[in-house]
Amino acid sequence: MIKRSAELILMAEAGALLAKVFDALDTRVLAGTSTMALNDFVERMIVDELQARPASKGQYDFPYVLNASIDDVVCHGMPSHDDVLRDGQIVNLDITLEKHGYIADSSTTYLVGDVAYPARRLVSSTYQAMWKGIAAVRPGARLGDIGHAIAHYAKAQGYSVVREYCGHGIGQQMHEDPQILHYGRPGTGLQLEEGMVFTIEPMLNQGKAAIRAIPDAWPVYTRDGKLSAQFEHTVAVTRTGVQVLTLRPNETPLCVLG
């Protein structure tokens, strides 16, 4: 669970490479592009340009390098040649990358073309909620502090938090202990220590938190058909606070990092 300084250096390298992938996606015109084309673009960049491994491919028999979750898909959307992104949609792209045996995990919900205000507000609020959780990370804090910060903010904005999926420890394995819930009570749960590395990845719904999962299939939907958005960063607990390992070069942190 606790990463040594040498391990943290390798995880920071993986995180910086993954940030480059999202930087490249930021410049692409998404409308008119299939989610499979995005998958293939990301795979070529990770393997050929960054000399790394797409860690999601083959994990739990998942055959692709990213999840592409459109509109009311909460998570685990599978890339497809038939899913051509249209103006006005939102899509979450969730990507993992392994370098030197260590894994980074991050996701962004993109606006496709001209998106209506309610969807843009959901996306913006979900991004803010992730940062509320990150701001709660420091030695001595509790996991419940992270979850409370996210859920309290989401509720104030009029959104619900999906409870079935959570953040997770990460390192040489994609999913390690502990689980990072996106709801909770302050002052409860595991105490954070320097060297812990985990993801914070809240999923916020426009409507109710209830989800609809298809048995033996990957996509998970909102039960009421309303929109869902997600953002994710991999973070490390430092001596004085938190380091965001997957921070983009052009991204301004919405909290003080330490």
Description:
With 258 residues, this protein is of the alpha+beta class. The chain contains four helices and 14 strands. The strands form five sheets. It has a three-stranded antiparallel beta sheet with strand order 1-3-4. A three-stranded antiparallel beta sheet has the order 2-11-10, with no helix packed on it. Helix 1 packs across helix 2 and helix 3 (117-135) runs antiparallel to helix 4.
Itemize the secondary structure elements and their pairings.
Layout: H1 5-26, H2 35-49, E1 66-70, E2 73-75, E3 90-99, E4 102-111, H3 117-135, H4 143-157, E5 160-161, E6 167-169, E7 176-180, E8 197-200, E9 203-205, E10 211-213, E11 220-222, E12 228-230, E13 233-237, E14 242-244
Antiparallel strand pairs: 1-3, 2-11, 3-4, 5-9, 6-7, 8-13, 9-12, 10-11, 13-14
Helix pairs in contact: 1-2, 3-4
What labels describe this entry?
24% strand; globular; alpha+beta; three-stranded antiparallel beta sheet; 258 residues; 14 strands; 4 helices
